[in-house]
Specification:
This protein is an alpha+beta fold. It has two domains: about 1-60, no CATH class; about 65-115, SH3 type barrels (Roll), CATH 2.30.30. About 45% of the residues lie in helices and about 25% in strands. It contains three helices and five strands, in the order ααβββββα. It has helices at about 1-20, 30-60, 115, and strands at about 65-70, 75-80, 90-95, 95-100, 105-110. A hairpin with a 2-residue loop joins strand 3 and strand 4. It is found in: Cell membrane. Belongs to the YajC family.
Length: about 120
């Protein structure tokens, strides 16, 4: 609806500019930029969001006991326990045990099974 009215307005102004001034329409670059922004909002940004969501789900599925992980808060730890169907994991960082959500893990740094089995 909005796009159709903008196209009609653009066509009317284009006719007036072609009949009147040889310089053309001053709003043409603005209209092209507006169409480009609309394209970005409707096509590109949702596609990026879906791709990021798939990557995060793949990362959470690959978590296992002994994985060295980095959280979005900058905490580096080793996964001590993880249960299927649960959205929380327990990590060990230095002398602390932390229970965190799987969704805060941003990167898997490697695997260290010996550290995961270490008792406090």
């Amino acid at each position: 609806m909005i796009i159709a009215s903008l196209l009609m307005l653009f066509a009317q102004e284009g006719e007036e500019a072609a009949a009147g001034a040889p310089g053309g329409n001053a709003l043409t670059p603005l209209f092209i930029v507006a169409l480009f922004m609309l394209f970005l909002m409707l096509v590109v940004f949702p596609a990026q969001s879906r791709r990021q969501r798939r990557e995060q789900e793949k990362l959470m599925a690959s978590l296992k006991r002994g994985s060295k992980v980095l959280t979005n808060a900058g905490i580096v730890g080793i996964v001590v326990s993880i249960r299927d169907g649960d959205d929380e994991i327990v990590i060990r960082s230095e002398d602390s045990r932390l229970r965190i959500k799987k969704s805060v893990v941003v990167q898997i740094l490697g695997s260290d099974e010996a550290e995961a089995s270490k008792k406090d």
